[in-house]
Amino acid sequence: MNAPDSIKPPNKPAPLYAKRTAVFPKKTDGPFRRFKWAVMAVCLIIYWGTPWLRWDRGPFAPHQAVLVDLEHRRFYMFAIEIWPQEFYFVAGMLIMAGIGLFLVTSAVGRAWCGYACPQTVWTDLYQHVDRLIDGDRNAQTRLQNAPWGAAKTMQRLFKWTVYLGIAFCTGGAWIFYFADAPTLQRQFWTGTAAPVAYAATGILTFTTFWLGGFMREQVCIYMCPWPRIQTAMLDENSLTVTYKHWRGEPRGSLKEAKGAATPLGDCIDCHQCVAVCPTGIDIREGAQIGCITCALCIDACDKAMDSVGRPRGLIDYCTLIDADLEASGKPARPALKVLFRPRTIAYFAIWGGIGAALLFMLGARERLTISVARERNPEFVQLSGGAVRNAFTVNLRNMQDRPRALRITAENMRGAALYSDEMASGAAQRELAVTVPADSMRRVRLYVVVPAEQARPHAFTFVAQPTDSVGGAVRRETQFMAPEPEHHDDKHEESE
Amino acid sequence: MTDKKVLGLDRHKVIDQATGTAMVGHEWDGIEELDTPLPRWWLWTFYATIVFALGYVLLYPAIPMLHAASTGLLGWTSRGMLATEMAEEHDRHRALRAAIAATPIEALASNPGLQRAAIEGGHAAFKVNCVQCHGAGAAGGKGYPNLNDDDWLWGGDLDTIQQTLVNGIRHPGNDNTRISQMPAFGRDGILTAPQVQDVVSHVRALSRQEPARAAAARGALLFANNCAVCHGAGGEGNRAVGAPKLTDRIWLYGGDRASLTNTLVNAHGGVMPAWGGRLDAETIKMLAIYVHSLGGGEAAPVAATALVTGR
Lengths: 496, 311
Fold this sequence. Notes:
The structure holds two protein chains of two kinds. By secondary structure, chain A is of the alpha+beta class. Chain A has three domains: 31-233, no CATH class; 240-328, no CATH class; 368-480, Immunoglobulin-like, CATH 2.60.40. Chain A has helices at 31-49, 88-108, 111-116, 118-134, 137-145, 150-174, 181-190, 195-215, 217-223, 226-233, 245-248, 254-259, 272-276, 296-308, 320-327, 335-339, 342-364, 488-495; strands spanning 17-18, 66-69, 74-77, 80-82, 240-243, 315-318, 368-374, 381-382, 388-398, 404-411, 417-420, 431-436, 440-450, 458-466, 474-480. In chain A, strands 7, 8, 9, 11 and 13 form a five-stranded antiparallel beta sheet that branches. A four-stranded antiparallel beta sheet of chain A has the order 12-10-14-15, with no helix packed on it. Chain B is mainly alpha-helical. Chain B folds into four domains: 2-34, no CATH class; 40-76, no CATH class; 80-165 and 274-292, Cytochrome Bc1 Complex, Chain D, domain 2, CATH 1.10.760.10; 182-266, Cytochrome Bc1 Complex, Chain D, domain 2 (Orthogonal Bundle), CATH 1.10.760. Chain B contains eleven helices and three strands. A two-stranded antiparallel ribbon of chain B has the order 1-2. Strand 1 (17-18) of chain A pairs parallel with strand 3 (38-39) of chain B, so a sheet runs across the interface.
């Protein structure tokens, strides 16, 4: 700043902060716009509808098809039920989602950003609200620049109320994924729901209202890390929305074209691509971080080209390689060749491999498990008659939607008798009957008593055999501890 | 031009052609930094964090003072929060404790849920009050009984354990405390040193640690005259006076010759506090249930001696 500059007067420093330039995208129509409508409808239906789907799981489990039951630590997804220790399924699905994004990005560029990202979907929704209430682009700009009066205030308040209504429906729907939806809705309106439900609704209502209603493209450009990652992931084979400058330049309106000495390009400089852009960029400046590849400019440009009788596709999805090919007059590569290349195939292989592994694990997982923790304080108990007792904490997990009656025995333990801490020691028997309630874990503190002559340290196995004769027994090996054989008695006898 | 840029001169004059943004003048291998202005709302976010921080500093303890931090307008403390949470937890258990208090101790086993709660509650109380002597696993030590085994000095049924807990053992000042006193046979000159050794031989023969020899035979007579009144003619013990059974494998002060000699010469009498005044009735009840559940609990009212031997 203090650099000496004797030749020219110091320049005015650039501003440190810039105000957001409001974006009023113009209404458009075309195949991509209709595709966006379809994606938005699917996304919103999935988001709002999923918690209300029912799924019959019998009398012992909730009947909500998709439910994240934080209170009971269960995650239900249709026929799949996940316990906390099986969270690797969720981790696996998240990894698949991540790799799926890589796959989609390398195949079709920023399709996530352009169509399916919630920020995009809700921004699109709010922009439709703007057009519905304030009118199209020009009317919105006029209203924006108009002085605040009663009419404008009323219109703005009305619009923000609609914003808030959408935001409330959005934030309020989120909580239904975490509890039985019909019950929670009743509780919500009668004021008896958990405070966290109201807090979550409030926070998400606010973020939707603020991010969808006001921040919009600022989220994509300044807040979201994903565009940065995607910038790094895009390569010369990735599809981007491309303005074909070799065809369009030099640009000029029809009037200018008439008076031009040399023929102008196809771009008639009608600014329709800029007018419809939801992030307010000019695609003709080339690929840029603000472009979410929603392709609305393609629709707008095609319409303009149709109206002046020029071929469509001045703005189109195109890769860098194909752009170079086309610019030098060669035909672009076939789409399939661009799509199937080592990178996308590798991503697909990883993605599919993880998916297959998850499916395999899903099919192979045990629905009844046993785990055993030896009591180590004390390691064993010497009983008065010479017998030795060990204590174990046996955890039986019944992950099925029905109670299981089990018979626990100690294999490889001659003369062993079992009883639990809820039983009298006199009731010890060779086997112990335990019922594990549906979809839950039962912890049993077990005592194993072994007669004096068998009391030596050795390995044995707990076997839990279902008595309903459906499914096999579960087993867990553990160790029985006993005092070392005593020798010091002999010494005393000799010393006497 | 390049020199000027490197020197930081004329920085605002260099305009990036593609974006129309001024450049800062920094260059790394041909990559140059644009002077893009931050979004204005970013600045407002920064101000908002300052406002939030101001409020936070006012409301919560934040500023270090000489002895403690500033108290904050809300008066929040981590200790206070703990106290609130403990009180809430206590309230949550109130109904359960009332149910345990209302149920006779022998009847708790017929209500598995309540019994389980009592065992867990007793376990928690045990960790606070009992582990100092009996150990975290209730395995005791020399002079401190192992509560896991099936050998009980005063009895191992629920009611007896509860009585022991309430009144203690040899607890001074409690009229109902369990009391007995073994004479110090050696120290007080009741038995001579050789006689003590004879009795030790007999006791070790009783518990089958030694074959019965001449010394044991001499000791048997001394035992009948001096010890049998409490420990029983066959050394089977007597729970009414807390006299241990001498025929089994369990020794509170050791069953070897040296330990037994020491016991006979000096006598032992362990003390356990009476918990009646210190803990509330439900806690004592839960403690009794917990100790009873450790594996050696006996049925009431008959004190069965032989439990499961596995034979």
